[in-house]
Design a protein that fits this description.
About 40% of the residues lie in helices and about 30% in strands. The protein is built from five helices and six strands, in the order ββαβαβαββαα. It has a six-stranded antiparallel sheet. Strand 5 and strand 6 form a beta hairpin.
Length: about 140
Amino acid sequence: MSSDTTTTTAYGITRTVSMSYDSAIARLRDLLKEEGFGVLTEIDVKRTLKEKIGKDVDPYVILGACNPKLAARALEIEPDIGLLLPCNVIVSQRGDGTRVGVVNPQSMVAFTSNPALAEVSKEADERLRRVIERL
């Protein structure tokens, strides 16, 4: 599985892969599970936009991923951190490739004023980056 490009921003990391859209979603689910994440939500953006406003867009899904152990630790430190959970993972069809992205949990923690969340967000970030790297 070769990648075309990887991009890192302040809020996430994305990677274009040569696998199909459906294969990327299936592989992501497996890799997330290996890193202790479950998929709590799935938003089919393409279907939703078509149903709600009649707009046609390329296939695009948002997966809400959660690592229960990390979430529990974060909630103990900062009960309102639930406003920033779960960690979003995106998959979109881009021409011949598929674009996959994960949120940077450390950027979400930057919204809080609680430095005690740094260790939890760093671990979540490392796990999600491994998912992208192994895709």
